[in-house]
């Protein structure tokens, strides 16, 4: 805690992780609450996140006419062998 090289930053919202989930959250919060300061941190560089390693892509419910969250969860658990 007494490190001379440490730096303190103040922020209203700290997002840990710069993958799809973290950046999506940060963007939505910035749109909804432009009065807040939002900081996103990542463990490596801006261009690297675990999202880029997702072999099956990124899945989500986009069209509620043909898909829903229950089916999405079932598909995800099936693809992940129940994990």
Strand order within the widest beta sheet: 1-2
Low-confidence stretches: none
Radius of gyration: 17 Å
* Alpha-carbon distance between the two ends: 39 Å
Number of strands: 2
Beta percentage is 5-15%
Structure classification: alpha+beta
Broad shape:
extended
> What's the order of the H and E elements?
EHEH
Could you describe the 3D structure shown?
With 83 residues, the chain is α+β, with helices and mostly antiparallel strands. The protein has a domain at 13-48 and 59-79. The protein has helices at 20-32, 69-79, and strands spanning 13-16, 38-41. The chain has a two-stranded parallel sheet. The radius of gyration is 17 Å and the shape is extended. The relative contact order is 0.14. The mean pLDDT is 85.
Task: Describe this structure in a few short sentences.
The protein contains two helices and two strands; from the N terminus they run βαβα.
Entry keywords:
single chain; 83 residues; alpha+beta; two-stranded parallel ribbon; extended
Give me the secondary-structure topology.
Layout: E1 13-16, H1 20-32, E2 38-41, H2 69-79
Parallel strand pairs: 1-2
